[in-house]
Amino acid sequence: MHATLKNVTERIIERSRQSRADYLARIDAAAAEGPGRGVLSCGNLAHGFAACGAGDKTALSGTTTPNIAIVSSYNDMLSAHQPLETFPALIKRAAHEAGAVAQYAGGVPAMCDGVTQGQPGMELSLFSRDVIAMATAVALSHNMFDAAICLGVCDKIVPGLVIGALAFGHLPMVFAPAGPMPSGLPNKEKARVREEYAAGKCGRDELLRAESESYHSAGTCTFYGTANSNQMLMEFMGLQLPGGSFVNPNTALRDALTEEAVRSVLRITRSGEAFTPIGHIVDEKAIVNGIVGLLATGGSTNHTIHLIAMAAAAGVVIDWDDFAELSSAVPLLARVYPNGSADVNHFHAAGGLGFCIGTLLEAGLLHEDVTTILGDGLSRFCQEPTLEDGAVGWKPAQATSLDTNILRPADAPFDDEGGIRLVQGNLGRSVVKISAVPQEQRVIEAAARVFPSQQAFVDAFNAGEFKTDMVAVIAGQGASANGMPELHKLTPFLRVLQDSGLKVALLTDGRMSGASGQVLAAIHLTPDTVQGGLIARVRDGDTVVIDADRGVLELQVDEATLASREPMVVDPALNRHGMGRELFEVFRRNAGASESGASVFGPVA
User: Fold this and answer.
1) Which of 19, 213, 247, 415 has the most C-beta neighbours closer than 10 Å?
2) What is the pLDDT of residue 573?
């Protein structure tokens, strides 16, 4: 085992000792009570299966037939979730064939950051994760179930499902994805059109045509943002069938994998081969494996927030120091947009996650001795699914990459480090993703230009105000201020400035999304504007240093001057109405810091 992996894991285990023990005691006590239906009154139970067929009613009247809860993020507006429409029928059929019952327990909301980028609705995005966690708990609260299958794909949905599932950590659970859409317009071409539109070189018609050719059918978007990083995490953490993350929707193999998820979860129920609750799968080593997977594949910066919240739900305490230390040791194995020009379909074809897990295990950079939905050992995830006579079979994952421009082994990586770095100084602590940032752009010392919003920056860009190197400071974007929206709308404008020869960077207490690209961006700044962070005292012309090589984040203004300034105040009445934002004031008031997961659920108990 690599020394860094060992040291970080031991530190997390020690840090989490009491909270993890308390969590396990709670879920083990719940498991000891046995199947939930056994404690329900006759009236409770009659309500619970009133709509079932006669056979299912008979089965559910006792406590020996397993009952699987289906929790789904299905809606038919969003491409990633639309394929989930057919999954409940597949699951119910497979459950019946295996002598079990499945009930659709409840749905969770699923919003798309791609639709809400730069729009007021984006201010609900991060908080939707915690709403999804609560909705998952509501779905499972009827105490009718012996296991669950969670259907989800995108940005906040999978983290929310995991957090909610871990509140029911005494139940076995399996996650099942929908898969990515087939490849459309190449990502490099899409990015080119976006930058030309930002520079005024093409019109809206051309931009919409390019976007529509890119996002063109059912399935997840094919770039390697948060949605596809979610699927990677579920495999690396042993919660999802191996090799299934990037199988396209509406294919025979996709449907067969969904049915196989039923058989997999039944094998780990109390009446199956080995009772394995999800709370025992998601432990310190599984979390570390997830972080390693994120770093090795160049995944989404959003998971420097989400993984912290997910870990906390299992009584595990992690922080950005853990990410940064692991990043220094974990090699970058993949080049997938925005960290390259390929998409996840190309990545999957080149060898995919099975190849990644295999080469990282060989390098001693993953914990093999973990519990998964398939039993003990992560090496079981070095497999690929096949379809044989309509049934899922398995073969060893690709031993060598089929395209080294996309995927490489751990001993010949694209980079010796994972690409997520911690920068810190008098401005606070912030995350920087440098895997796609050119070496010459990783350090900047320049004057600040301070803006209260994305739109204010865009207005200044359109007015031709940017003539010199600068650090764009977008303050007041933390969870307590406005829900911590993604500021991805800024990317093409910053790229245009950078491509013109200027050195530019972004500093914000907001997020920059899983599609963070080639512009240096210090994001998730903590403490944020509302929490008394120094970002509230930055003014135009101040010198800001972001040095991703040395891990430095400094405002070069003397203390007396800073003390004389009134901090920026986020108006509590500003932009708090419309698009449902008024309903989320309780979330803004109770949101934690970004390094604690920006969650409303508070620190680990």
Assistant:
1) 247
2) 62
For the annotated binding site for [4Fe-4S] cluster, the residues are 154, 221
Q: Shortest CA distance to 268 belongs to which of 146, 129, 113?
A: 146
Question: If DSSP codes are grouped into helix, strand and coil, which group holds residue 550?
Answer: coil
How far apart (Å, rounded) are the C-alpha atoms in residues 104 and 89? 10
pLDDT higher than threshold 80 for residue 133: yes
* pLDDT of the residue at 337: 87
What DSSP designation does 312 have? H
Q: What is the spatial distance between Cα 539 and Cα 449, in angstroms, rounded to a whole number?
A: 7
Model confidence at 516: pLDDT above 70: no
C-alpha dist (Å) from residue 543 to 500, 501, 546, 553: 22, 19, 10, 11
* Distance of alpha carbon 195 from alpha carbon 235, whole angstroms: 34
Give the model's pLDDT for residue 528: 96
**pLDDT one-digit tens code per residue, 2-21:** 999 999 999 999 999 999 99
Contact by Cβ (8 Å): 288, 5? yes
pLDDT of residue 229: 95
CB 522 within 8 A of CB 516: no
Phi-psi region of 230 (alpha: psi -120 to 50; beta: other; left: phi over 0): alpha
pLDDT above 90 (res 512): no
DSSP letter at 500 equals T
Q: Is the pLDDT of residue 61 over 60?
A: yes
How far apart CA 36 and CA 341 sit, in angstroms, is: 49
Please give the annotated binding residues, written as ranges: 154, 221
In percent, the amount of the chain with pLDDT more than 90 equals: 81
- Residue from 422, 418, 593, 433 nearest 512 by CA: 433
pTM, to two decimals: 0.95
The domain ranges of the chain are 3-33+66-182+217-396, 420-571
Residues 6+ apart with CB under 8 A from 591: 127, 478, 479, 480, 484, 598, 599, 600
State the Cα–Cα distance between residues 307 and 322, nearest whole angstrom: 11
The CATH architecture one would assign to domain 420-571 is: 3-Layer(bba) Sandwich (3.50)
- For the cut 70, the answer to whether the pLDDT of residue 69 exceeds it is yes
Give the pairing type, strands 147-151 and 173-176: parallel
Which of 139, 360, 117, 123 is closest to 226 using CA atoms?
A: 117
